[in-house]
User: Which sequence fits this backbone?
């Protein structure tokens, strides 16, 4: 359990072990990805957790989940910036026993019906030649993780919602929903790894 905790926490703050899947605490990964991309292209990005989204886990390669979320946030920010929208890009997370749903919502120009059919094609892009790889990569990552990615909704002049669905996994044995600390308690954390020290500081 200790090794799993260490792998998950290190992964969530940016470390990675290639080709190793771990139980990832989705809110932590989402917040850290958003922090990295915050104020991208002058568009703010905010997280919203509801209906179980604040305590869900997926089994994934950390680098893949970071890449998936990062590409979608980048695209959403570009779409919103292209129409000079002042509204935030929203990453909305919900969860059930079987599936974690991550919606990335932009306020850009939206997609035509023709483009919806082609948007995940590696040879297609609304941004010009050679720019269609990101969403194709997102689809491949989602499917590799046992999930799927779709355009849940779009409206010309109002924006687009991209939906990622990934299998949820039970909360690991090491996960604590809360730690009760009494006023007289003293907590001492000792760790020789800088990454873990940063986790405790935050």
Assistant:
């Amino acid at each position: 359990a200790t090794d799993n905790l260490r792998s998950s926490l290190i992964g969530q703050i940016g470390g990675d072990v290639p080709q190793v899947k771990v139980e990832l605490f989705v809110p932590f990964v989402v917040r850290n990805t958003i922090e990295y991309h915050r104020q991208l292209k002058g568009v703010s990005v905010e997280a919203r957790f509801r209906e179980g989204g604040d305590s869900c886990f997926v089994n994934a390669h950390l680098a893949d989940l970071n890449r998936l979320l990062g590409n979608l946030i980048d695209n959403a920010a570009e779409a919103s910036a292209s129409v000079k929208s002042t509204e935030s890009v929203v990453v909305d997370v919900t969860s059930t026993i079987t599936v974690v749903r991550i919606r990335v919502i932009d306020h850009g120009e939206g997609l035509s019906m023709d483009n919806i059919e082609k948007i995940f094609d590696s040879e297609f892009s609304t941004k010009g030649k050679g720019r269609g790889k990101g969403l194709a990569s997102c689809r491949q990552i989602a499917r590799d993780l046992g999930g799927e990615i779709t355009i849940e909704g779009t409206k010309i002049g109002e924006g687009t919602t991209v939906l990622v669905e990934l299998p949820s996994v039970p909360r690991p044995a090491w996960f604590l929903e809360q730690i009760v600390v009494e006023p007289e308690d003293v907590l001492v954390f000792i760790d020789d790894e800088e990454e873990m020290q940063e986790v405790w500081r935050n």
Observations:
- The beta strands are 21-25, 45-49, 57-61, 89-95, 99-105, 148-155, 159-169.
